[in-house]
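Re: that backbone. Tokens:
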């Protein structure tokens, strides 16, 4: 296997530890400025959304609810603007982990390995392990602060609309749930670690970019599918005279309860006030609905459990990256000459 060790011709220079932080900022200044700009723009939009846009939309809904059966005058544009910008900002917050993964895979490590910048750094009294530590630690702080700020502002903007805007998203809406919590920040860190691992593995920007995006998307999909099962659910039983089972939230399972207490998953038809549904329920010996779900009080237990899982995966990705780097560079100190 070809070693990624420094060139012998460069190792005779006296060792002097460079200022890694200054070097990293200079090397990745465009990405740093782009991330800061992204965070500031989205944060500003979220402040606008949770403030003036929410107030205007809430006033329009107040006018609409005050309307009688006759002609009605209300600001429909304010309602539409709130809905549109809520969607845009939610997408932006949810996209943050993918932006981090794309940059991490395409530029943070792989480009330096391609260009030889990393090997040059290892000749300046910087060991590969220390180099990688700096590459992870500095962006991790910026990613945590930036994505955490956006998730917090999104949660604040969403909270300001509760009870005031009729079309406001429920807490369990997929995009709202993801953008409102700590799991998004953890996912951004996972994207960072994934990009570094793929950059070391592929050692070319395009391959690492595709791999990091695919890994981040896969991890998020697994977490989304596992979310309903991360915390014990509650069960409600309700009458068949209702069209749907009682209880709103993240649904784990729904169905019918028989006279013996057995649960039949699915088989939902509608209210027994509708003849065909009453007949179908009678054949199944159904006497009520059951609904296994997570109410809003489970929001933070679910979020924090998912966050812990994603952070654990991030830790494993980080350990894998360091082991891969050690295998690729060998166990010899970076300042020793090695075969290229």
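Recovered sequence:
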């Amino acid at each position: 296997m070809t070693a990624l060790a420094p060139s012998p011709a460069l190792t005779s220079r006296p060792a002097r530890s460079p200022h890694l932080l200054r070097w990293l900022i200079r090397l990745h200044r465009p990405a740093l400025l782009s991330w800061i700009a992204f965070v500031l723009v989205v944060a500003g939009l979220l402040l606008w959304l949770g403030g003036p846009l929410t107030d205007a939309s809430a006033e329009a809904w107040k006018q609409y609810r005050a309307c009688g059966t006759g002609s009605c005058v209300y600001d429909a544009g304010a309602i539409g603007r709130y809905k549109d910008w809520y969607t845009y900002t939610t997408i932006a917050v949810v996209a943050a982990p993918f932006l981090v993964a794309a940059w991490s895979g395409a530029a943070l490590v792989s480009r330096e390995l391609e260009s030889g910048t990393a090997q040059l750094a290892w000749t300046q009294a910087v060991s590969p392990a220390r180099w990688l530590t700096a590459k992870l630690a500095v962006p991790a702080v910026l990613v945590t602060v930036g994505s955490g700020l956006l998730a917090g502002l999104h949660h604040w903007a969403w909270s300001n609309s509760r009870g005031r805007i009729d079309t406001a998203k429920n807490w369990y809406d997929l995009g709202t749930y993801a953008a409102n919590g700590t799991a998004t920040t953890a996912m951004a860190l996972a994207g960072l670690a994934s990009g570094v691992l793929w950059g070391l593995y592929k050692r070319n920007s395009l391959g690492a970019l595709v791999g990091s995006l695919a890994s981040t998307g896969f991890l998020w999909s697994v977490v989304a599918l596992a979310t309903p099962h991360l915390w014990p659910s509650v069960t409600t039983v309700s009458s068949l005279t209702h069209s749907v089972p009682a209880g709103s939230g993240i649904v784990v399972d729904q169905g019918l309860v028989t006279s013996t207490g057995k649960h039949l998953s699915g088989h939902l038809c509608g209210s027994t006030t509708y003849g065909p549904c009453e007949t179908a329920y009678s054949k199944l010996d159904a006497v009520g609905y059951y609904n296994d779900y997570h109410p809003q009080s489970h929001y933070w237990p679910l979020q924090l459990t998912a966050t812990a899982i994603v952070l654990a995966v991030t830790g494993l990705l980080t350990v894998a990256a360091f082991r891969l780097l050690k295998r690729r560079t060998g166990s010899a100190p970076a300042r020793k000459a090695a075969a290229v």
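The two ends are 10 Å apart (CA to CA). The first strand starts at residue 234 and ends at 238.
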